[in-house]
Amino acid sequence: MLLPCPGRLLDLTDPVVMGILNTTPDSFSDAGRFATLEAALEQGRAMAAEGAVIIDVGGESTRPGARPVRVDDELARVIPVIRELAAELTTVISIDTRKPEVMEAAVAAGASMINDVNGLRAPGALAAAAALGVPVCVMHMQGEPGTMQTRPVYDDVVEEVYEFLAERIEACLAAGLREDQVIVDPGFGFGKTVAHNLRLMHGLERFAGLGVPLLVGVSRKSMIGTLLDRPVEGRLHGSLALAAIAAMKGARVLRAHDVGPTVDVLRLTTAVARAEPDNRG
């Protein structure tokens, strides 16, 4: 399973880590720690050194209740970071945005992947992504960040998310993207209750039927806090457990804040998956 990024062909046969680099002052998990250019660059370098294959740079919080950010503000947060990291590292740089203007500027600055929590549904987003010709990750989200956790409802969350992602793949192909340029994300925590998230994780193998790589982001999510009664800073163990489960169920990209520990977990899950059966009786 190969992902053709400009200047690099990513092998997703085994799961890899996408490091999360939030440059927002109101990130739910980082509390604005990387809102300055120097801090963001230091964190990006650290994640690359720890084994991140992709670094996902975002300048707009999509936590529950978050308010939209103006295009100019988002550009000011992400473009200097992308430009510096892309020039310095061989790691793939991804832009985490819903806005076509930010997608275009980010790719011009050196980003070689687009990660859109809105599934390229904003006006002009799909056309922009197709014209840029870089891989895209389309995610499922019920509602908008500001309201998505206000009583989300599904009849069958696994099938409804599957059908949505299948439709978005078709939309990407119709717009001119190739199938090998598309990744999907079921959107844990985006318009879903804890029960919905658990059902999604339980049924994650279903998404193999889409025929494209699967990205899973569960790092430090509120479901961990709810199930384990842990604050954000105490959710590492829960994040690693879910990452291991997701990898064993077919996820090829794990989006994580804690890159080094997640890389270790994926090395072990890969070793288990590759173990030869013992036929000695």
Give a summary of the structure in a few sentences.
By secondary structure, the protein is of the alpha/beta class. Helix content is 41%, strand content 16%. The chain contains nine helices and ten strands.
Distance from N terminus to C terminus (CA atoms, Å) equals 34 Å
What is the typical, i.e. mean, pLDDT?
Answer: 93
Give the strand order, joined by hyphens, for the main sheet: 8-7-6-5-4-3-10-9
Overall 3D geometry? globular
* The CATH architecture: Alpha-Beta Barrel
Category by helix and strand content: alpha/beta
CATH superfamily, by name, is Dihydropteroate synthase-like
CATH class: Alpha Beta
Round the Cα radius of gyration to an integer and report it.
18 Å
CATH fold call = TIM Barrel
What does this structure look like?
With 281 residues, the protein is α/β, with parallel strands linked by helices. 41% of the residues lie in helices and 16% in strands. It has a single domain (2-6, 14-270), classed as TIM Barrel. It has helices at residues 37-50, 71-88, 100-109, 125-132, 157-175, 194-202, 222-228, 236-248, 259-274; strands at 2-5, 8-11, 16-22, 54-58, 92-96, 113-116, 136-139, 182-185, 215-217, 253-256. Strands 8-7-6-5-4-3-10-9 form an 8-stranded parallel sheet. Strands 1-2 form a two-stranded antiparallel ribbon. Helix 2 packs parallel to helix 3 (100-109) and helix 3 (100-109) packs parallel to helix 4. The longest helix has 19 residues, at 157-175. The two termini are 34 Å apart. The mean pLDDT is 93.
List the helices and strands and how they pair.
Blueprint: E1 2-5, E2 8-11, E3 16-22, H1 37-50, E4 54-58, H2 71-88, E5 92-96, H3 100-109, E6 113-116, H4 125-132, E7 136-139, H5 157-175, E8 182-185, H6 194-202, E9 215-217, H7 222-228, H8 236-248, E10 253-256, H9 259-274
Parallel strand pairs: 3-4, 3-10, 4-5, 5-6, 6-7, 7-8, 9-10
Antiparallel strand pairs: 1-2
Helix pairs in contact: 1-2, 2-3, 3-4, 8-9
